[in-house]
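LOG
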Amino acid sequence: MELFDWARAVFALIATLGLLLGVAYGARRLGMLQANGQAPKRMRITESLMLDPRRRMVIVRCDEREHLILLGPGGDIVVGEQAAKQEEPKPEPQP
């Protein structure tokens, strides 16, 4: 009877994994999971600098604006804001 119990446990594991894969596949087909590169991102961290173990300065770019933010345990403070500079295209390496 012990072999029957092991076989039932293995079958249950395979069935569970199959159901999970089926649900994930269905969610992707229905558009519930966002694929990489579908929508352009509006916000990103341009640069970050650790001031001390608890505080950090971060430059966040959002909608052609750059915001300088001080992050710390006491709260977050927007230090400054300015129009973002145009990014220079990166040169391609020569073979």
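LOG (cont.) second protein
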Amino acid sequence: MTAHSNDWTEEEKELLEKQIFTALEQVIDPELGIDIVNLGLIYDIALFENGRCVISMTLTTMGCPLFDVIHEEILKAMEDVPAITETEVKLVWYPAWDTSKMSRYARIALGIR
């Protein structure tokens, strides 16, 4: 997580990061049925003054037709994080996503070794 504000103490940043990841774990990839955190799709979370948050993420494949659905679900999930007043989602392609970015839970759930 990247903090771009001096307003956050280390303890506040850690707590906020946990709240954000907990909220994002509620966003399920419609094709794979696993949340975007365990799939390893979240690359960075940047916090700015006034509660602005920029989430950098990728998709499992370029041209995934479900980005709009995932994007809307992220915005909805972030409403549950009281300290966040604005969320921007940036889609990035580097580094390229592969199954090594998935959590152990996601690999087991999808039968990947």
